[in-house]
Amino acid sequence: MPVDPQLLEILVCPACKADVELKTLAANTCAVLVERYREKFRDEVPEVHEGLRCTKCGRVYPIVSDIPVMLVDEALPAEG
Ligand SMILES: [Zn+2]
Asked: In angstroms, what is the span from residue 42 Cα to ligand 1's centroid?
């Protein structure tokens, strides 16, 4: 199930409170995130395909098995 569009509208970057936008993640980035979250999903392999990118600071918050992880500590740093 995709992330609820209405949920997307109310989500903001926890670091700077700016809007976030859906972003497809590179395959190698997804692989790293799957390994990172695997131990938290005891009965299933987590699925990671997209993230939410902050329009201001550029941090990317991963969406893990359709759950947006809106934590600064777990965000991917802004790209270049
Ligand atoms: Zn931000």
From this structure: 31
